[in-house]
Automatic annotation (TrEMBL):
Portion held of the full protein: 686 to 977 of 1124
Species the sequence originates in: Ectothiorhodospira magna
Location of the EAL domain: 24-278
The protein, known as: PAS domain S-box-containing protein/diguanylate cyclase (GGDEF) domain-containing protein
Family: Belongs to the leucine-binding protein family.
Lineage: Bacteria, Pseudomonadati, Pseudomonadota, Gammaproteobacteria, Chromatiales
Amino acid sequence: ALKQKGRDGWQFFNDYQHHQALQRLNVTLGLRLAIEREELEARFQPIVSSDRSRIVGAELLLRWFPPQGEVSPGIFIPIAEMSGAILPIGLWVFREGCRAEVEWRRRWGAHAPYVSINLSARQLTDESLLDEMRRVLMETAADPTRITLEVTETALMADIDANIRMLRRLTDMGLRLAVDDFGTGYSSLAQLTRLPVDILKIDRAFVDGIETHHESRTVVRAVISLGRSLGLQLVAEGVETQGQHLELMSGGCDLFQGYLFHAPMKPKELILAVNEQLRQLTEREQDQNEEC
Ligand code: C2E
Ligand code: MG
Ligand code: MG
Ligand code: MG
């Protein structure tokens, strides 16, 4: 296989590059048909509060099952961003998220978890994004104030001036904004205050090192106090151990997401989990009333 190498002419692909190029091509072609072939599925990972680990929200995480077997989002999302397939896919994801919001609110009213939806940088530069999202919100009758959009810190800072305008329009629609993977980019405090942000999600890499690395612990504590002083909610992602949970709580973190609490689950499983939790809460309340 050949690839063009600047002005100097041509150079042969090595095996690894060849494999990567083939994979990219396969994924690009496959993704174009993924929606109509109904190969996409939503999973939801609960976000819990420090009050008895109650499920207060859930992040929608996309799964793709082409005929040859599951491909992870770590592989197909970057390729979808390059090829532009992320635009129709992102809209499909947004619609799924809106449907979930409506269904959960119908089931649980004020106890319904909020829905968190990932938005890629490529979507933010799309002229038609706002109209399309507005239309989906109307068609599904979803409540935008119960939907949070997650944009990674790196994506936000890539073109901050253009992004600010777009994000303001989205938050004007009532949607809430979370900065995803916070701590991995290099944003300054001044830049952060220019964005209409409601939530900071502390990246898994920092949570991971919190018990073993003094630096991670310092960064996490600083991010939490920074976030709090700006009036933001803090979500720690990738919480896997009780030790991490305790350290994050003592640092002042409000919300947690990770395998320690729940892995991403199918929509039906999420409904069972929330039902079970509400049942336990009412039981506890009844017990307390009897004691009085
Ligand atoms: P993210 O938005 O930071 O999502 C968190 C990722 O961490 C998810 O990986 C989740 O399954 C994983 N995770 C959660 N708890 C734990 C834990 O305790 N330990 C470990 N090791 N991992 C944990 P997933 O589902 O593979 O998604 C990877 C990334 O793909 C996401 O990172 C997000 O950037 C992207 N992605 C997923 N779905 C979508 C989507 O619908 N749209 C866009 N634009 N990106 C998406
Ligand atoms: Mg996310
Ligand atoms: Mg994240
Ligand atoms: Mg992350």
